[in-house]
Amino acid sequence: HNAVSNGVLGIEHGNLIDEPTAKLMAEKGAFLTPTLITYQAMASQEFGSFLPPSIAAKNLQVLEAGLRSVQLADQAGVTMCYGTDLLGPLQTQQTLGFRLLRQAGQSPLKILQSATINAAKMLRQEEQLGRIKEGYMADLIILNANPLEDIEVLCKPEKHLLAVIKDGRVLESRWSQLAKEDVGSRVIE
Q1: pLDDT in tens, 137-161
Q2: Cα(68)–Cα(32) distance, integer angstroms
Q3: Of 113, 129, 45, which is closest to residue 81 (Cα–Cα)?
Q4: 31 near 122, Cβ under 8 Å?
Q5: Residue pair 121/82 in contact by the 8 Å Cβ criterion
Q6: 169 neighbors 177 (Cβ within 8 angstroms)
Q7: What are the DSSP E strand ranges found in 13-143?
Q8: How many angstroms separate the CA atoms of 61 and 125, rounded?
């Protein structure tokens, strides 16, 4: 609350946001970038030894509080961005953060906006990032299913991600319409 009152426009994590703070953030145009997947990944069986037992219980409390904070922020009209804050071997969990935002009550559209146009706005780059539009940087992914219908599509890249395009160039492709020999050299126009 103090940070936003003093002009801070970007809050990372925000796991303990209360209703008055969420309302103030919305009034001031402050952005929230929750990092819920960090806490779930550290608590998962896959990374069970990542945290010592004395901290593991607190980690789960922070995750639950973070889910409530996302709900409060959404109800107050706070603009949210997508973030994870994962390091090292935990980075394999990056896309599972979409699932947690859905669990917190975010719509698939709001979740996609958090990873695209909202992040561009926070960076003050909305005139070149965050949209598929002429003159914008062409960073895209091609999926075989619609994440607006099921956000879980983004949680399973091995199943749904067909191609990655960065700076207008095809970096990776499993899509039959983008032959393997084109990867890395073809520019999408």
Answers
A1: 878 899 999 999 999 999 999 999 9
A2: 13
A3: 113
A4: yes
A5: no
A6: no
A7: 31-33, 79-80, 140-143
A8: 35
Q: Which residues of 23-60 are buried (b: 16+ CB within 10 A; e: fewer)?
A: bbbbeeebbbbbbbbbbbbbbeeebeebbeeeeeeebe
Q: Which phi-psi region, left, alpha or beta, contains residue 165 (left: φ > 0; alpha: ψ -120 to 50)?
A: beta
3-state helix, strand, coil in the chain (%, to 5): 45, 15, 40
- Written as six digits, the tokens of 26 are 């919305």
Own/partner long-range contacts of 26-29 (Cβ < 8 Å, ≥24 apart): 26/73, 26/76, 26/77, 26/78, 28/4, 29/79
Residues of the chain falling short of pLDDT 70: 48, 179-189
Contact 70, 106 (CB under 8 A): yes
Contacts with 8 (C-beta within 8 Å, 6 or more apart), sequence order? 30
- The pLDDT, as a whole number, for residue 183 is 44
The C-alpha atoms of residue 105 and residue 99 are separated, in whole angstroms, by 10
Q: How far apart are CA 44 and CA 17, in angstroms?
A: 24
Nearest to 114 by CA among 81, 77, 152, 151: 81
Supply the pLDDT for residue 148. Answer: 97
CB of 145 closer than 8 Å to CB of 154: no
pTM of the model: 0.87
